[in-house]
Design a protein that fits this description.
heterotrimer, A: 119 residues, alpha/beta, Rossmann fold, 5 helices, 47% helix, 20% strand, globular, C: 402 residues, alpha+beta, Chemotaxis protein chec
Chain lengths: 119, 172, 402
């Protein structure tokens, strides 16, 4: 099973993502901010990161930038409530492979993962 | 049959006049009215009482100092609000030598990082400084924390009842 | 057409003094010592005016104004006030026609008090028609909005409180939009802090889209379909900002947002609604009684998603980004939640724009209020930057970018 890291400051959202993903993925970590996301990524090198944007200490776009500059092959999908075009462009610049806006349904998450991994 | 007459125990309570003090407002009573104010977050209520003269006053301030913003409403600021309340109480017969103060409010339930100390903390500091400069002692206080408060000052006794949304009420 | 902040302050002050004068007239006639609680100027959809009156019986008097202030003014009493007020009037009586006539008389004198100050300030006379007595439930006590549904208007609203009796009355002045905007523009002293009025109503429409987006997010997450959404932008003294929210307990989230514009935003649910929303969100039964940490986490995420729904439209139309801090969950008296936000903004300005939205279901299992307090200077910047032809571009297209 592909390995996935979930980064979201909301316990509620981590639970929701875990429920959607655990059937087909092995969850290697659940973290609450961008700093932890980078640390756990370096330790675990998961196949996929589901990354929130608005998080304390360090936001998801900065964390994505760092993960991608260390490992250009990393697959990072932004999973956020932010639906602003400028933010999406920032996410692309940081190297994000996909973008899901909350609230989401399971099929759109699965689809976004297939698109990102396929690309 | 129940007989209703003037001697029932609750009637004096219900007859005590109640004056509401809004944000950036004050009231003074010489007739023992209850002065109330509600929903203090980082705002501060300063209750003052001169037992000898029978004068009580309450002001609900929002910001520390009038020096910061160009505004003519003195009761909005801790420094000018206290000075205003003291002078109004003096006009009603109180004397600064006898006035005692009780302070409640000034919580910092929200952490807005870039501005240094929260407004609640700065409000409390300003109140202490201004009262100190007027030689008015703070005899009790319930300040800070992360919850809102509502106040009732009993103009007869100087008792200040502090009620919070989820921590019950106490008299200070 | 430009309106400067100074003239908004002046007009707000005129409305406040008018309401004070009306209240003083009533005190003179009846001995009832009521107090003006809040006076604000609101720009909103004509059809939404008076939504806060919903479901309650009112009596009032209404008249049309002619001259620089063309439009209608209504004095609205809670029906429960009528008898005590007319009985306090020497010679007044609460019997039938006499009661109606007494209300008319008090109303007429109060409203003259309200209007005189405007006439003096504007150095003109304001003619008004004879007062008409009205009894109705909810917003029907105000002049009918038929045929002018989505038109935006300025409303001058004062809330007057009769302490000790827990009774309320209101003054609504509804001038014609165009004339009002012209009067305000003509009274602008400087151009330095001028706000383009037309863009303010476009901004209002953008915010309405944002409110709808936030309501859709609620539905997508919880299955709760909201029936009514109202969006308005008001202008009031900073010390009146916390009074926009009831003093009862609320649960919700607060964020600071940063960009064009910057400011603070709260999303507040009454306690029952918070419980309902949190449980509709939770995939399983909560552990423990009452409002658990799982409820809190659900509300936090709800606040996060609703906040984004609300501000993203601004950012997309303005082609900029508006960042916000992670939401802080609050559970406290409504006013105590709002006063730190007002105080923050109040460090730089004496008055504030308040962007307010409400959504609810008919059966009131769910109601939610959103209040945003933007920094004046940055709101002005946002309005200056606003290209009206982009006003419908509130939604970003993910597909186009990824």
């Amino acid at each position: 099973m592909p390995e996935v890291l979930i980064a979201d400051d909301s316990e509620f959202m981590r639970n929701l993502l875990r429920e959607i993903l655990e059937e087909d993925h092995q969850i290697v970590g659940e973290v609450e901010n961008g700093v932890e996301a980078v640390e756990v990524y370096k330790e675990e090198s998961p196949d996929l990161v589901m990354m929130d944007i608005v998080m304390p200490i360090r936001d998801g776009i900065e964390a994505t930038d760092e993960i991608k500059s260390g490992d250009p092959d990393a697959t990072v999908i932004m999973c956020t409530s932010v639906g602003q075009e400028e933010k999406m462009k920032e996410a692309v610049k940081a190297g994000a492979d996909g973008y899901i806006t909350k609230p989401f349904q399971k099929p759109s998450v699965i689809e976004a993962i297939e698109d990102a991994v396929g690309a | 049959m129940k007989v209703y007459d003037g001697s029932s125990g609750t009637s004096t309570e219900s007859q005590q006049e109640r004056l509401k003090v809004g944000i950036a407002e004050y009231e003074v009573t010489t007739s023992g009215a209850n002065l109330t104010t509600s929903g203090l977050g980082s705002c501060l209520g300063i209750a003052m009482y001169d037992e000898a003269a029978g004068v009580a006053g309450l002001v609900h301030v929002m910001l520390p100092s009038a020096d910061e913003v160009d505004d003519t409403n003195e009761a909005k600021f801790a420094d000018t609000g206290i000075e205003l309340l003291v002078s109004e109480m003096e006009r009603a017969g109180a004397s600064t030598r006898h006035i005692e103060a009780k302070v409640a409010g000034g919580s910092d339930m929200l952490d807005f990082s870039q501005n240094g100390s929260g407004i609640g903390v700065r409000n409390v500091e300003q109140v202490e400084e201004t009262l100190d400069s007027l030689n008015i002692p703070i005899v009790s206080q319930d300040v800070g924390g992360d919850h809102g408060r509502s106040l009732k000052l009993d103009g007869n006794s100087g008792d200040l009842t502090v009620k919070s949304a989820n921590k019950g009420s106490q008299i200070i | 057409m430009q309106v400067d902040i100074q003239s908004l302050e002046t007009f707000n002050q005129l409305a406040y003094e008018g309401a004070e004068q009306a209240t003083a007239m009533m005190a003179q006639m009846t001995g009832i010592d009521a107090a003006v609680d809040v006076t604000k100027i609101t720009l909103m959809d004509r059809a939404d005016v008076g939504e806060e009156l919903a479901g309650q019986p009112f009596v009032g008097i209404q008249f049309g104004m002619e001259g620089v202030l063309n439009g209608d003014t209504t004095l609205v009493f809670e029906e429960r006030c009528r008898d005590p007020i007319v009985e306090a009037l020497p010679g007044g009586s609460s019997d039938g026609d006499m009661a109606e006539s007494s209300v008319k008389e008090i109303g007429n004198i109060m409203m003259s008090g309200f209007i005189d100050g405007w006439a003096d300030y504007l150095e003109t006379t304001i003619e008004h028609s004879p007062p008409e007595y009205i009894e109705a439930t909810g917003a029907d006590v105000l002049p009918s909005a038929d045929g002018v549904g989505s038109e935006q208007v300025f409303v001058f609203k004062s809330h007057i409180d009769w302490p000790g009796e827990d009774l309320n009355f209101y003054i609504y002045m509804l001038p014609e939009y165009t004339e009002m905007a012209e009067v305000m523009a003509a009274n602008a002293d400087t151009q330095s802090d001028a706000i383009p009025v037309d863009k303010l109503s476009v901004f209002n429409q953008m915010t309405r889209e944002g409110t709808q987006k936030a309501a859709e997010n609620v539905t997508a997450m919880t299955g709760i379909e909201t029936d009514a959404e109202v969006t308005q932008i008001s202008f009031a003294p900073i010390e009146d900002v916390p009074k926009q929210v009831d003093s009862k307990s609320y649960v919700g989230t607060v964020v600071e947002f940063d960009g064009t514009p910057s400011g603070y935003l709260s999303i507040l649910f009454d306690e029952t609604s918070a419980m309902n929303v949190a449980e509709a969100l939770m995939p399983m039964e909560p552990d423990g009684e009452g409002f658990t940490s799982m409820h809190e986490s659900a509300i936090e995420e709800m606040g996060n998603i609703m906040t984004s729904g609300f501000v993203d439209g601004w950012a997309n139309v303005l082609q900029t980004s508006v960042e916000h801090t992670p939401p802080e969950v609050v559970h406290d008296m409504g006013q105590a939640i709002m006063d730190p936000l007002a105080a923050q903004v109040g460090q730089h300005q004496t008055h504030a724009f308040i962007i307010e939205s409400r959504m609810q279901t008919d059966d009131l299992d769910f109601s939610c209020e959103i209040h945003a307090l933007p920094d004046d200077a940055e709101l002005k910047q946002a309005l200056d930057d606003l290209e009206i032809e982009r006003k419908d571009e509130t939604e970003a297209d993910v597909e186009k970018i990824f």
